[in-house]
Design brief:
heterodimer; A: about 220 residues; mainly alpha; MetI-like fold; about 0% strand; B: about 220 residues; elongated; transport (chain B); ABC transporter permease (chain B); MetI-like (chain B); ABC_transp_perm/SBD (chain B); transmembrane helix (chain B)
């Protein structure tokens, strides 16, 4: 075990390991690229959906069941299925990562909108605000902390899961995990796993700090 | 992409065996998760100073990617069922711990005081008043943890286990979508059935919450 940790330390800190196409720097860049694109696509789908459901109060049943369904959907199966259907492209990677991220964003956005005090909403309406004004000036600002929590959760899940891009022959930090498993090179596998975990953790902490800084005067 | 129903008909035995093994791994993990998180949650609820650290540790564990958890356990337990179950258990902890603490927090102070006034000791209050009242929130956590575990078992296919997940690797390697589709559908089905059963369990365990029974 001690020897393994030494090897792992050597692997992570060697200069060769960081440079080139298969270097950590490049793989890290790819990993972040997949994760960010997937999260942005997911947000573009899920934010309007969550806001609409929350604003109108219709389709809550759908939102709750969607999240349960999303949790049950096996990402590994989905990526392989889309891969076999569409062939070698980034589509399987993005489809499965987006499917993973959408439920978290929808449910949290919806929960944020529902948590807005009905009296506040009534007061806004009573002051003569139109529906879109109530949404933009009252509901969204009040729901923002929970919306952010949903985005943060989604991003962390996506970063953790983007590992599987390597399974369908793309890059990212998952490359080390799958290449290492194929070559029976435990140090490389562990190196990849540690890097993914570190990226997920750092992003989560950074977003948590950002959230605290943004909503400094407000209860979470 | 066409589904070859013949393949499914020829492999019902294998599909059943994989489903059972799949469910076994997921349910063992949730059960172990409950055994670990219940006492920890009571501790976090009673001792305020421990709450932050305990929930924090669970949160950090949750950010570790599932494939990474299995891989990180390889030096300890190798390519075995133990690795699968341990990895899944770690994942259930954050949901179970948070929900149990939230549930205990939401117990009305009056119920607790009434129990005390009637002479119940702390342990008895916990078992007969606090935990039953916290049950709906705890069960919500158990449902999430169960569905999540059932979905995650397939990740363990990378370390040679993974129940229905084996169908994914198999279909991928042979460029054959039918087993993959069967695996996805069966996983969703298992999750759906397990969730429905847990709803039934909660219904049985909380007779006072049934509609129409309220005074």
């Amino acid at each position: 075990m001690g020897e393994l940790l030494m090897d792992l330390g050597a692997w992570l800190t060697s200069g060769d390991q960081w440079s080139g196409v298969d270097g950590i720097a490049n793989r890290l860049g790819e990993h972040l690229e997949y994760s960010l694109i997937a999260t942005v696509i997911a947000a573009a789908i899920a934010l309007p959906t969550g806001l609409l459901i929350g604003h109108t109060g219709r389709g809550a049943f759908l939102a709750i069941n969607l999240s349960s369904f999303g949790r049950a959907l096996p990402t590994v199966g989905l990526i392989v299925l889309v891969f076999l259907a569409s062939g070698l492209s980034m589509t399987p990677v993005y489809v499965s990562l987006v499917a993973l991220a959408v439920p978290s964003i929808v449910t949290n956005t919806y929960a944020g909108m529902r948590a807005v005090d009905p009296e506040t909403r009534d007061a806004a309406r009573g002051q003569g605000m139109r529906a879109h004004q109530v949404l933009l000036r009252v509901e969204i600002p009040l729901a923002l902390p929970l919306i952010m929590t949903g985005l943060r959760l989604a991003l962390v899940q996506v970063v953790a899961t983007a590992t599987i891009a390597a399974y369908v022959s793309f890059g990212g930090l998952g490359r080390y995990v799958f290449d290492g498993l194929a070559q029976r090179d435990l140090v490389q596998v562990l190196g990849g796993a540690v890097l993914v975990a570190a990226v997920a953790l750092v992003l989560d902490l950074a977003l948590a700090a950002l959230q605290r800084a943004l909503f400094v005067n407000r209860p979470a | 992409m066409t589904v070859e129903w013949d393949w499914i008909a020829d492999h019902t035995g294998e599909l059943t065996a994989l489903s059972v093994s799949h469910l076994q791994a997921a349910l063992t993990a949730v059960l172990l998760g409950l055994l670990i998180s219940l006492p920890l949650a009571v501790l976090a609820h009673r001792v305020r100073q421990l709450r932050g650290p305990l929930l924090g540790i669970a949160n950090v564990l949750f950010t570790i990617p599932s494939i990474a958890i299995f891989v990180l356990l390889l030096p300890v337990s190798g390519l075995t069922r133990t690795t699968t179950v341990t990895g899944l258990t770690v994942y259930t902890l954050v949901v179970l711990l948070r929900n149990t603490v939230d549930g205990l927090d939401a117990v009305p102070a009056k119920a607790r005081e009434a129990a005390k006034a009637m002479g119940a000791r702390p342990l008895r209050t916990l078992l007969t008043v606090e935990l039953p009242l916290a049950l709906p929130v705890i069960m919500a956590g158990v449902r999430i943890a169960t569905v999540m575990s059932i979905s995650l078992v397939s990740v363990a296919t990378y370390i040679g286990d993974g129940g229905l997940g084996q169908l994914f690797t198999d279909g991928f390697q042979r460029n054959f979508p039918t087993p993959v589709l069967a695996g996805v559908v069966l996983t969703l089905l298992l999750a759906l059935v397990a969730d429905a059963l847990l709803v039934a369990v909660e219904y049985v365990l909380t007779p006072w919450n049934r509609k129409g029974r309220r005074a």
